[in-house]
Amino acid sequence: MSNIDQATVANETPVAETTPRLREIPAGENFSAVTQYLGDKKVNAVFAIRRAEGKPRFEKKCLFDFSGVTEEQLYLLAMYGAKVKIQSRLRDVGEAEMLDPNTLATVDVLADVVQAPRNSVDSVTAAIRLLARKSGATEDDVREALASFVATE
């Protein structure tokens, strides 16, 4: 076969049959990520990814190999997740407490990050935050608008 004939045959093979696919997570599915330490500096993780808001989510499975990572690099890497969790906790307290420089000025990683219960925000607050984010308004502006709407009804 010539090179042209081989290219034609290769192009006729459907991509779906030869390319492995990620599992698409159905819209109504309550997906739970999984992270499992396997030992020997290896961690197995299953998480969701999506290209953009409104696009489908897919399940991604990865084996993370930390063999060549130094202890210092592990601490620096761990800081990302710890900071994200502390930022979330600070968003869920009152504004005065959040803006107090003494609030979580020293973080006990075991107590304040690893063992801390997951923040649960009531559904009204969650809806207000979503409306504020989507509209570009502040949470206070959204609360005032809702209060005004309720008062006129």
Task: Describe this structure in a few short sentences.
This protein has a domain at 1-67. Helix content is 48%, strand content 18%. It has seven helices and four strands.
How is this structure best described in words?
- The chain has 153 residues and is α+β, with helices and mostly antiparallel strands.
- It has a domain of 67 residues.
- It is built from seven helices and four strands, in the order H-H-E-E-E-E-H-H-H-H-H.
- Strands 1-4-3-2 form a four-stranded antiparallel β-sheet, with no helix packed on it.
- A hairpin with a 2-residue loop joins strand 2 and strand 3.
- The radius of gyration is 24 Å and the shape is flat.
- Total helices: the number is 7
Percent helix: 40-55%
Q: Nearest-angstrom radius of gyration?
A: 24 Å
The main sheet comes to: 4 strands, antiparallel
Give the class from helix and strand content and strand pairing: alpha+beta
Mean pLDDT: 84
Gross morphology is flat
User: Based on DSSP secondary structure assignment, what is the total number of beta strands?
Assistant: 4
pLDDT < 50 runs, ≥5 residues: 1-9
Q: Distance between termini?
A: 78 Å
* Secondary-structure element string: HHEEEEHHHHH
Strands ordered across the widest β-sheet:
1-4-3-2
β-strand amount: 15-25%
